[in-house]
Structure formats: structure tokens, C-alpha cells
Amino acid sequence: MKRLLLLTWQTLTKPSGYYSLGFLVIGGFIAGVIFWGGFNTALEITNTEEFCISCHEMENNVYEELKTTIHFSNRSGVRATCPDCHVPHKWTDKIARKMQASKEVWGMLFGTIDTREKFLAHRRQLAQNEWTRLKANDSLECRNCHNFDYMDFTEQSERAANQHSGALAKGEKTCIDCHKGIAHQLPDMKGVEGW
Amino acid sequence: MRHLLNRKIFKTMVVSTIAVSSLMLSLAATSTENEVATLRDQTKLVEQQKPNLIPKVVNKDIKQGRNYPMQPPVIPHTTRSYEVNKNNNKCMSCHSRQRTEESQAPMVSVTHYMNRDGNFLAEISPRRYFCNQCHVTQLDAKPLVENTFIDMHSMMKQKPSKTAQH
Lengths: 195, 166
Description:
heterodimer, A: mainly alpha, 60% helix, elongated, B: mainly alpha, extended
């Protein structure tokens, strides 16, 4: 084992005896493109709804609930898929979220929420995670589509316009403070602020 | 000759009875058709009626009058996907006593905090928990059936004018 490691180190530190510099540079570049492209493609595949609902935990619980909401079916036909709300769009944040999501793979392998009952038992905690995240980033994933600067208050109902031009405009509140449970059903809200 | 005449009379009698009975039958049939109001609107069974447009929920936030003193007030806003279930009551997140200051929504009546013995509870009474049993949103649509209900105040106003006529 030690000899093998030593041999690898020596190979890596010594100049190449057989391959030309051009081959190594161009070959390295092409290999880099392939690996980097491959990595990003794989990352994007994990960032699709089909991937999310390939697990029955997601398909039978949260996806079914999403179907009845305005984020799934509405007058203009624009819809939000899972990653639109649950994965940050900026690359670094996305990687950070993806690393956190490795815990979900653990949960899937060990069946943490593999029945409806288990899912409901965990729902408050799961919802709380998302509320905390959205509260911390000022509802960034909402704002990826719902841009405050382009909101026309005159098109909103009076009640909505008051809230949006008041508390939201001043930054006292963020989207998630009021709009909880808009895409999935709510857990037991006992003790949640504003309920 | 007489025999012939008799036969002729008999013939006309038969024809007229048939005509009258068939007329009656058809009358009866049309009358039942018109009496029974159906959403199918007398469309033939083999045909599919074109469905009416789904009316929109009134979302004006303006209180509507009550037709009689004990009428539960109607909801003047949309309530799409408001959850009222074992876990939570979305309506109460604005209309409960603790929330009205922030929401500026009307508070649910104090009777909703009373149990059947008239004792006040801290939370909304379980028997009043399901808001939509009494309070409903309104649709921007023409009534399907004419309503002849008269509010007692309108009735009282009408009364003296009627007596004056007599």
C-alpha cells in the first residue's frame, strides 16, 4: 500500500517521459471540459422535477399536494417546479444546498419518511427547515419570479396592496412570513408566529 | 242506411277520443317537461350540455348586508386553499381575537368562543371551528332560481302603505 502511494507520487512529480507537452495540455483541456461539463450536466439532472419525484416520498406527498395549488395550475400556465423554490439559483448557494441535500439521500436510504404517517410526523420539522431558510435569505426563491420592483399594487386586491406596499416594502416582513403553506399543506401551526 | 250511419258515428267517436287523449298525453308530457327545472336544461340524454362558465369569487373586501338578524356574514374575499382542519385554521390567523389588531379583519363574534353552556373559552369553540359550515364566499353570478325572500324590515315598510290603500 505504502509502495503504491509512493509510486503514484513519483509518477505525478516526475516530468512525462512518453507524452508530448502539446498532448498533455490539449488532452488535459479536453478532459477538463468533459469532466466539468459532465459534472454540471449531472448536477442539472438532479435539479429537475422528474428527479425529485423519482422518489415516492416526494411524489406521493409533496408533489400531490402541489398539484392543487396555483403554483401548479393557473390562468397563465407558468408553473413552478420543485427546484424553483427549493434550490437556490446562484451556483455557489446551489452547491451548498446540494451538499445539505445529501442528508436527504440518507433519509431515503433508511426510510425516514417512507410512509405517509412518518411524513406527517416529520412535517413540522421539514416545513420549519424551509421557513428558516426562506426567512434567512429574504424569500430569495420567491423573489426569483415575484420581483417586488415590478409589482403593480393597483392590480392587487386592496388588502394585498396594503400589505405589500406597507410591511413588505419597509422590509419588516418577507414573503414567507404570510405566505406559508401556499404550495403544500401545513403542519400543526401551534406556536408559529402569526397563527 | 241506419246501420251505415251508426258506423259513421262510431268511427268519428273513436277518432275524436284518440285525438283528445293523445292531445292530453302530449299536454301532460310538455307540462312535466317545463315544470322540472334541471341543470341539463332539457338536453337530450344522448347529447352533452355545454357547461356554463365557472363564475369568479367576489374579492372586493366590502361587507355585504345581512338579510336577517341571525344570518352568518358572507365572506367578501377569496379563500382558495385556506386550510381549516385538525392542524390549523387559516381563517383564525386573521379573524381571531389576538390577530385582529394586526390584520384589521373583523373579529369572529364572541359567541364563537362560547361552549354550549355559555362559558367562554380561550380558543374558538370546537363547535364553531369549521367556518365554512356557515360562512361562505359569494360568486359573481346570476341566481339560478328566483328568490322571493323578503326581509322583515322591507315587510314592515310595506305594511302601512297597504293598510292606507284599504
